[in-house]
Amino acid sequence: MYKRGEGSDRILLGIYVDDLIITGSSESGIITFKEEMKETFRMSDLGKLSFYLGLEVLQSETGITVTQLKLSMDSTTKPVDATELKSTLGSLRYLIHTRPDIMFAVGYLSRFMEQPTKEHQAAVKHVLRYITDTLRFGRWEYVEKGKVEVKYVSTDDQLADILTKPLGRVRFQELRSKIGMVENKVMLRIRE
Questions:
Q1: Residue 127, pLDDT above cutoff 60
Q2: Is the pTM of this model over 0.85?
Q3: Under a CB-based contact definition with an 8 Å cutoff, are residues 91 and 102 in contact?
Q4: In whole angstroms, how far apart are CA 143 and each of 15, 35, 36, 137, 146?
């Protein structure tokens, strides 16, 4: 999780592997930021967020709804050879020691090794394509050129935890405050 700007000009950027979430208060600020990113990196703008880290996001005028993970044990697609998928995922599990950027995806996909379907196989292929496309990405090259500054971040300041880990109420509120998220005081009622 990265932030840029202050107050109404603040932009929040969530990055995971090859996916980005860009959000902020100012639509013009977001558009400007996207254009800057496109000048520097090869990227596509997929429009409003609809799917991220296995979560389906539905946006409407009444609000935003986050639904269950698309990949599930209850997949309706045809089964595939579990032996081949286990072998591929096993190799990827070794690779995560030098490629921590794929750790979440590989760990999540490993849940489906016993009864994999075409949907799971497609997700594994997506990870393999990502690895192939990023073989020559040298992170230290950016550090040496001064484009990226490496700093130590303590566990207490890991802002991405708000999106990636189950948190207690107090910790969630602390992180929410640090990234400038405003509390929504609207109460939801569950229909019985």
A1: yes
A2: no
A3: no
A4: 18, 23, 19, 12, 5
